[in-house]
From TrEMBL:
GO terms for biological process: actin filament polymerization; exocytosis. The gene is Washc3. This is WASH complex subunit 3. Residues 103-125 are annotated as: Disordered. GO terms for cellular component: WASH complex. Belongs to the CCDC53 family. It comes from Rhodinocichla rosea.
Amino acid sequence: MDEDGLPIVGSGIDLTKVPAIQQKRTVAFLNQFVVHTVQFLNRFSTVCEEKLSALSLRIQQIETTLNILDAKLSSIPGLEDVKFEVSSVNVNSVTNGPVAQAAADQQTAGSPQPGQNNTQEEGLQKTEVVTENVTTVAKDPRYARYLKMVQV
């Protein structure tokens, strides 16, 4: 036995002769564990709820801004007739970065259906012509510092 009256457990001790731990002490340990666990989960759920509500507010603000922008664009005469084509590969690579490019490469590397193959080739040829005439963000000197920071 040690100074607290607890048995010292080792290889040479006969556990049948060691007295059991008091039930009050076991219940106290379990109660303490349950209380601390519940407090942690309550704190965690509160933080998660606050973050979700903040995110929801940001999404609502973005939607409101988008609706305002849409209203401003729809008020400009002559834009109803403008049509544009966007390649899904280019959209993914711009919005999601290198990860989307890898996914797009995997999609194009897969076996496309025969009817879609010609459509993809025509779309790629059109986007190549468009990219030759347009200055991209990567080539714009105003964004050079930002792109360098992103690479670092």
